[in-house]
Amino acid sequence: MSDFKKVAEAVFEGDPESVQSLTQQLIDGGAAPMDIVNNGLLAGMDIVAPKFKAGEMFIPEVMMSAKALAEGMKLVKPLLSTADSAGMATFLMGTVKGDLHDIGKNLVVMILESGGFNVVDLGVDISPEQFVEAVKEHKPQIVGMCALLTTTMMAMKETIDALAAAGLRDSVKILVGGAPLYPEFAEKIGADGYCVDAVACKEMATALVAKH
Amino acid sequence: MVIVGELINTSRKSISEAVDNKDARVIQQIALEQVEAGAHYIDVNCGNKVFNELENMRWLVNTIQEAVKVPLCIDSPNPQALEAGLELVKYGTPMINSITDEGPRFDAVIPLVQKYKAKIVALCMDDRGMPDTAADRMRVVKSLYAKLTAAGVKDDDIYFDPLVKPVSSVGTAGVEVLETIRLIKEQYPGVHFMCGLSNVSYGLPNRQYLNRLFVSQTMAAGMDGYILNPTDKGMMGLIYAAKTLLGQDEYCMGYIKAHRKGFYEK
């Protein structure tokens, strides 16, 4: 097995210690940091994501894999050139105003980070104004919104309207998700996509960025 | 023990379609099945139809009451939708699902509890967010209990929902709920409980095993109300059996009856 593959395997196994030592070995051996990220760490997550989607792996295992990957990233990130980092798309994520749910959002953040996105997590109960300010500040390619309550679903529309009023709507793609949502709702409020789960969100975001 | 049948919820595809097509037959059939399976209340939730929730709520309440004469649990975070349903409830004492200790939501729902003399499901959450520990939950319980009783709500009409989170994400989610139930029983012996607990198994395989075990664990801690699918014979059979073992089933009659009704057939 190649050393990259070993890293990928350790990410898939959710083994932070092995990921750490294997990544360090690759760094010491002179491997290019971006290769370690793409062919090792993210390659491991590429095994996890489809298995999670197919119901063969479960949330706690995905969390362990993400944790293992984060350990490797900690070592590699300082070595990435600014050009490497600049290649990563920025994803702005938050739970909308009036809604305090964070479990699903945190899972999405984890999956996106492990999918190579630079994720800015605004947290919960984020008002349309806060989203607008954050878009100005971080200039993301994609904005993700989460709502778990039927009463806060409409805050997604308010946020999209606020981005439009601020002249920022066309500068970003908008993805929405959360238990009470459905595709027609996403369409009706003017979002660019509805994500049924965290992996779907990563896939849609990846596709949107590739199109850009 | 109070069982609220959860199946009439537009987040389920078949219900959503029946509501869109105003197919009364489908709704009435499901209402009837739940009552026959042992539900005391029928939950009515069309909250994800955000663009016409009120109209759908009225139609559902009327449609269900043409088929069954049981009290309804009007379920929405939207106070206008709650009132639209409550106005039309004809049988028994309605239940409202739910109130929280979030400032605006409490203030908007409490007049409805008073006006319709309804039973109220009180969710253990406030403006500070979703609780993790039993102590977080008890802080909300204390505040909600004080406010509800000050508003004239009787202990017997209060149903605390300890807020069940997935153990797949929060490892201590189950044990913190058990501790919360124990503390509520100790400090407020006159109140009741109500919760949907399938959330506990979210993200894990073989969910029905976790759900059923959690029912028996929470019952042993003092839980006396659930929002669930009453047509799930395995689950209902387990609840009857747990009541028997907890000394809540005189002469084991409930258990024997459940046996005769085929709850334990393989």
Largest interface: A-B, 23 and 21 residues
In whole angstroms, the N-to-C terminal distance of chain B is: 25 Å
Mean pLDDT of chain A: 92
How many individual helices of chain A? Answer: 10
Q: Which structural class is indicated by helix and strand composition of chain B?
A: alpha/beta
- Biggest sheet features of chain B: 8 strands, parallel
What share of the residues of chain B lie within helices? 40-55%
Low-confidence segments of chain B: none
Mean pLDDT of chain B: 95
Shape of chain A: globular
Termini separation of chain A: 36 Å
Indicate the radius of gyration of chain A in whole angstroms: 18 Å
Strand order of the largest sheet of chain B: 7-6-5-4-3-2-1-8
Strand-residue fraction of chain B? 5-15%
Main β-sheet, spatial strand arrangement of chain A: 2-1-3-4-5
As a percent range, the share of strand residues of chain A is: 5-15%
Q: From the alpha-carbon coordinates, what is the Rg of chain B to the nearest angstrom?
A: 18 Å
Q: Kindly state the number of beta strands of chain B.
A: 8
Oligomer: heterodimer
Strand tally of chain A: 5
Task: Walk me through this protein's architecture.
- Chain A is α/β, with parallel strands linked by helices and 212 residues long.
- In chain A, 58% of the residues lie in helices and 14% in strands.
- Chain A has ten helices and five strands.
- In chain A, strands 2-1-3-4-5 form a five-stranded parallel β-sheet, sandwiched between helices.
- In chain A, α6 (103-114) links the parallel β1 and β2.
- The longest helix of chain A has 21 residues, at 33-53.
- Chain B is of the alpha/beta class.
- Chain B is built from ten helices and eight strands.
- An eight-stranded parallel β-sheet of chain B has the order 7-6-5-4-3-2-1-8.
- In chain B, α4 (79-86) packs parallel to α5 (103-115) and α9 runs antiparallel to α10.
- Chain B is globular, with a radius of gyration of 18 Å.
- The mean pLDDT of chain B is 95.
- The chains are: A alpha/beta (212), B alpha/beta (266).
